[in-house]
Design brief:
This protein has about 150 residues and is mainly beta. Helix content is about 0%, strand content about 65%. A hairpin with a 4-residue loop joins strand 3 (about 40-50) and strand 4.
């Protein structure tokens, strides 16, 4: 069972937008769970964007996530992530973009064996890298693309 509480705020002034968000997610163990206590992850984030010209758009964000101590882990997982975006509009419907992200993980989390077998937390940047976690505590990702709106 998953329970979550989240909130966000945004402030716009001219071509600048600033935002902040907070969330808390509780994972409660089920019948087939590898953990016995509720695992809670708290996240705080900041974001800023700038529409520099009609063609150029820039964005930056930072988030910090920490797991609360549970399931016998005294040094729970924590994650720092920095993301950047640069976008150039070729036309109203077509843009080129570059996205960069870096995540640093620390602490311990449950491994596949469950309770009593904590492992070092590893970095996994966003959904695009869901199947490829880092083999250590840090991961960098860079993506280039063309976006066309039909």
């Amino acid at each position: 069972m998953v329970e979550y509480l989240a909130g966000a705020a945004r402030y716009t002034t001219g071509n600048l937008v600033f935002g902040a968000n907070l969330s808390s997610v509780n994972y409660r163990p089920g019948v087939n769970s590898l953990f016995t206590n509720t695992a809670t992850f708290d996240t705080a984030g900041l974001v800023a964007t700038w529409q520099a010209t009609p063609a150029w758009f820039f964005g930056a964000s930072y988030s910090y996530t920490r797991e609360r101590a549970a399931n016998g882990i005294g040094n729970p997982a924590r994650y720092h992530q920095l993301s950047l975006e640069q976008t150039y509009a070729l036309s109203k419907r077509t843009t080129l973009y570059v996205l960069e992200a870096y995540q640093r993980a620390g602490g311990l989390t449950l491994g596949k064996a469950g309770i009593g077998n904590p492992v070092n937390a590893v970095a996994v940047v966003g959904d695009s890298q869901n199947g490829t976690p880092s083999s250590n505590g840090s991961q960098s990702v860079m993506m280039f693309g063309i976006r066309h709106i039909f």
